[in-house]
Design goal:
mainly alpha, 14 helices, 322 residues, globular
């Protein structure tokens, strides 16, 4: 009886002391002003670089779009939204926008489909996989200038091997980069050959992460390769496909290098991209303020497209989970 009386207060005291110790540990882990200063010290380099190279250019660029600033340094006075009004009435700007969107549509679809097919072929266990992976990814490592010069020679109307092969089988030999009907297709084909290797690696990594048990269970149920592809592989690759589409659309909207080097926006402006039009307006036409306004209009278009893509991806993901 005495033991019970002595133990109970001790246990109660321990329970009473436990919250105090817990609160002490929590207060110790939460840190104080010194830890906050240390945290800001670690974040300071990134914060400074972020402000200097992203926030300040955005603010300064928007200010330039409200002025008549010239490359020569003249015309820096504030003119309000006159540049934006001029841009919305500029047919050349809208044509460059349509060219960019058309390039994005033409390039995104094959860059997703071809990358998936290549990854599926390699994932089946072809002999010499290192050679296949290297050959598919190697063009992506080349500089845009090298790729452009290489394909300009291939597209040469008189000396190019493509037209030579077409002549051998009796087909017409177009002037690929000089014909308005084929110039954009030629640039898209070059872009697909050049950049498909990156998407190929993303798909291959995703394929290798699919558990083999799912295919084994499907084979026990009598599912063939096609049924396994449709019911297991493609759904499992859904998040990777969404990521690739988003990255590819954003990259295609910013196209400049290969178009500028291969066609210079021609013939007759049929391949001029929005980025090239901004570049020409600012550095050839010396109109920094106007080119800045076009940049922010194009930026708004990219933001709208990105939001629509993210919304569609989220909706598809929720539907797949249900």
């Amino acid at each position: 009886m005495t033991t019970t009386t002595v133990t109970a207060p001790a246990a109660s005291a321990d329970r009473a002391a436990s919250p105090a110790r817990t609160r002490t540990r929590v207060r110790t882990r939460s840190g104080g002003p010194r830890d906050t200063k240390i945290g800001w010290g670690f974040a300071a380099p990134f914060t400074i670089l972020f402000a200097l190279f992203l926030v300040w250019p955005l603010v300064h660029g928007f200010w330039l779009s409200l002025t008549g600033q010239s490359l020569t340094g003249q015309g820096g006075e504030l003119i309000g939204f006159a540049n934006y009004a001029e841009a919305f009435a500029d047919g050349a700007m809208w044509r460059s926008m349509l060219n960019t969107l058309w390039f994005t549509v033409l390039s995104t679809i094959p860059l997703v489909v071809i990358a998936l097919v290549l990854a599926l072929l390699v994932n089946t266990g072809l002999p010499g996989q290192w050679l296949w992976r290297l050959s598919f990814f190697l063009p992506y490592l080349l500089a845009s200038t090298v790729v452009s010069l290489f394909w300009i020679q291939l597209y040469s109307p008189t000396l190019g091997p493509i037209n030579s092969a077409l002549a051998t089988v009796g087909l017409p030999q177009p002037a690929w980069l000089q014909d308005p009907d084929t110039a954009m297709i030629a640039v898209v084909a070059t872009t697909v050959w050049w950049t498909v290797g990156f998407n190929f690696l993303l798909y291959l990594a995703a394929l290798q992460n699919i558990p083999d048990q799912q295919y084994e269970a499907a084979s026990l149920d009598g599912a063939g390769r096609w049924r396994s592809l449709v019911s297991i592989t493609i759904p499992q690759l859904g998040p990777t496909t969404g990521l690739i589409v988003i990255l590819q659309v954003l990259a295609s909207l910013k196209v400049f290098d290969q178009i500028y080097q291969m066609t210079n926006g021609g013939p007759a402006g049929t391949t001029r991209s929005t980025v090239q039009y901004i570049f020409e307006t600012g550095f050839t036409g010396y109109r920094f303020g106007y080119s800045s306004a076009i940049s922010y209009i194009f930026f708004a278009v990219i933001v709208v497209i990105s939001i629509a893509q993210f919304a569609a991806t989220a909706r598809n993901r929720k539907g797949a989970q249900k």
